[in-house]
Amino acid sequence: MNIANDWKDYALLDAGGGEKLERWGRYILRRPDPQAIWPPVHGSSVWERADARYHRSASGGGRWEYVKKVPERWIIQYRDLAFHIEPTGFKHTGLFPEQAVNWDWMADKIKQAGYPVRVLNLFGYTGGATVATAAAGAEVCHVDAAKRMVQRAKENMILSKLGEARARYITDDVLKFIQREERRKSFYDAIIMDPPSYGRGPNGEVWKLEDTLYDLIAQCARILTPDPLFMLVNTYTTGFSPTVTANMLAMNLKKRIGRVSCGEVGLPVADSSVVLPCGAYARWEAGSA
Fold first, then answer.
1. How far is 239 from 81, CA to CA, in rounded Å?
2. CA distance 8 to 285
3. Are 188 and 118 contacting, i.e. CB atoms less than 8 angstroms apart?
C-alpha cells in the first residue's frame, strides 16, 4: 500500500459505515465510499463537523445537503501545486488526493531522468498528474473526452503558476487519439492513464475496463520511445487485482529493459492506524528487472 500522507490542505478525518469524512482546506465534506465497510473509527462528534453531505439517490446520482455555507469552488494546495475543489452532482470534488503519492513518484523520475521528458496523460480528468509532471519539468500532452475537464486542467495549471502553455490539451476519445499518434509517429517517454471502470462513448459505445484495458495498454506501448522512462496505470474497479494490470504491462513491455510493480494507493484516517484503500496501480519503469 502506497499511502498519500504528505498533505497539509487535505485530511481524511474518518471513514466507516460506507462513508468518508474529509477536510478540503477550510471545508469538511461527507461522501459515500464503498470500501469503508467497517464502523467509523472516531465518534459522532467528528462527523457532526461536516459542512456538507452527499446523499445517493435510489434512481442514480444524488445531491449535496449543505449544513453550512460552502463556496461553489475553492483552492487547495499540495506542495507547490494548486487545484480547484468543486463538489459535483456525482459526489466528486475534482481531485483524487490519494494520487499525490503517484505525483511524487513521477516527479522524482522526471527530475532524475537527465533529459527532456515527453509525457502523455490519458483520461487526464482535471489534470493532477499533468500539473505534477509539468512542474517537474516535463512536456505534457493532456487528453480527456470531456471538454469541461480539459478546461479545469488548464485552470489548475495556471493556479499552480505554471502557465497554460506548459501542456498541450486535447479533447478527444483516448483510443482514437492514440491511433492517430501512432500514424503520426509521435512518441512519448512516459504514459499515464486513469481509465474509467465503465462508461459510454459519444455514439453509445459501451466501455468496460476488463474488455478494453489490454488493448489500450498494447496501443500505448506502440507510442513509447525506444527507451521509455515509465508507464503508470491506475484502476478503481472494486475487486480488480493490481496484478492483472501488472501482467498486462509486463506482456506488452517485455522487450524493454525495466521492471514492473503494482499495489494499492490509500489515505490514512487521521489519529488512527486505519488506511482507506482508494484504488490500484501498476507501474513499468526503466531499469534492471
1. 32
2. 29
3. yes
Which cell goes with 204? Answer: 453509445
Amino acid at 1: M
CATH number of the CATH domain containing 8: 2.60.40.1180
CB 220 within 8 A of CB 183: no
pLDDT digits (tens, 9 = 90+) for 214-262: 999 999 999 999 999 999 999 988 778 999 999 999 999 999 999 999 9
Of 43, 59, 85, the one marking the end of a domain is 85
User: Do residues 107 and 129 lie in contact, with contact meaning Cβ atoms separated by under 8 Å?
Assistant: no
The number of CA neighbours under 13 Å toward the Cβ of 66 is 9
What sign does the dihedral 195-196-202-205 (CA atoms) show? positive
- The sign of the torsion formed by the CA atoms of 264, 266, 271, 274 equals negative
78-93 residue pLDDT tens: 999 999 999 998 899 9
The answer to whether position 91 is within a domain reads no
- 231 and 120 in a common domain: yes
| Burial of 188 per CB tally in 10 Å (0-12, 13-18, 19+) | buried
Whose cell is 509517429? That residue is 185
Residue 184 and residue 258 share a domain: yes
The reply to whether 56 and 140 lie within a common domain is: no
Give Cα separations from 35 to 74, 76, 101, 257, 267 (angstroms): 27, 25, 19, 36, 12
Strand bridging mode 19-24 / 27-32: antiparallel
Instruction: Kindly state the cell numbers that stand for 94.
Output: 475534482
63 shares a domain with 102: no
Cell of 266: 490509500
C-alpha 140/C-alpha 41 separation (Å) is: 40
The domain in which residue 27 lies consists of 2-85
- Residue 90 included in any domain: no
